[in-house]
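Researcher: First entry.
Model:
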Amino acid sequence: MKKAFITGVTGQDGSYLAELLLAKGYEVHAILRRSSVFTTHRVDSFIDHERFKTYHGDLTDSSNLHTLLSRIEPDEIYNLGAQSHVAVSFEVPEYTAEVDALGTIRLLNAIKDLGIKPRFYQASTSELFGGLPETAPQSESTPFYPKSPYGAAKLYAYWVTVNYRESYGLHGSNGILFNHESPRRGQTFVTKKITQAVARIQQGRQELLTLGNMDAKRDWGYAKDYVEAMWLMMQQEQPDDYVIATGETWTVRQFVDMSFDEIGVQLDWVGTGVDEKGIDRATGKVRVAIDPRYFRPAEVDLLWGNPAKAREKLGWVARTPVRELVRKMVQYDLHNDQYGGPEL
């Protein structure tokens, strides 16, 4: 029986990955940060599984990581734990670096010092690229240009994984995942904010959705598809780095339109810039407005991935079209106030 160790298991990706590994017969070990409120809603459906074991831990605690890894001796380590909100990273840059950058080196040093030989997956991000239009679509050979403290911290984690691979023979791979969403997405992320607002508008519980840069383009995929790519990287004889993406790109405005389509509402867009509004064609009500507070200090205008290498070497393709992803998210939010309900 293979043993896997996951950081960030209570997040969107971690919960889907744990489900996948349990289904494949793994024994799954995971750390949970101590909190005075319950944070396990995404894993509650399998938290009592006989092959799922949790421990209190944190990526800021080296001794804890050493102790757990020496006790577990996992075959695979998936480092998904992070302060993962780009906008928040401008407000807490030092904490973001502490967890996202130094947390990775703490894990890598524990592996080296203990002399264990797990395969290591590092959750990298399309935010490494910075969204320069002239570089799109972005592949593994595209130069990095992060435009946020989050992207900069993840850049350190990316390169230190490569460094330990080359210096110490670590089977370490970076998954450069482009935006991936699901019904389990956190409420502060723009896609979840949109689909949840659409559901509440349909239910008469909300009047207006406020957003920032409507012209930002993203390559959106389904998180449940993307965790399969993580697992596939760990099954390769040789470690490597892979872009994981759909190869398509959509604006925030288009994501909003698709979400409102799910409740039978067509929007007319009027105005430009901060004065732009999305108006319900049938009722004349303003349903979407722009709030400058949601603009980033440095905007990332275009993230568009080229997944050719993953398709060729891993045999991985994104199976879920963006419209199906939107449908899943809106329908979930129409039937559930929080997490834990059945996914549709």
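Researcher: Second entry.
Model:
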Amino acid sequence: MAHESIVTVTDANFQDTISTSDKPVLVDFWAAWCGPCKMLAPVLDDVAAETSEKLTIGKLNVDENPATSQKYGVMSIPTLLVFKNGEVVKTLVGYMSKKDMLDKLADVL
């Protein structure tokens, strides 16, 4: 079960989600068939629990929302894009531990 602060992002609400947030937005591009994506889900839950004051986390299913994935050139999943003021400021690709993720996000938090 995803942490309650993680939002579902779609092609329809993507622009609103990344441009109206007053804090950085991390979007997890994932798919149900992706093993590393499933492994990353609990890590994201933990990160969301620790950073909900400083970071918005969203999940975008690439199979259901292909337009956004194509727009940002997402070729492999999981890909995590961090947006600030509607612009990509960081890209993380592949599975990583909670510590690695927090270390890599430290400069945007």
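Model: Note on the second entry: The first strand starts at residue 7 and ends at 9.
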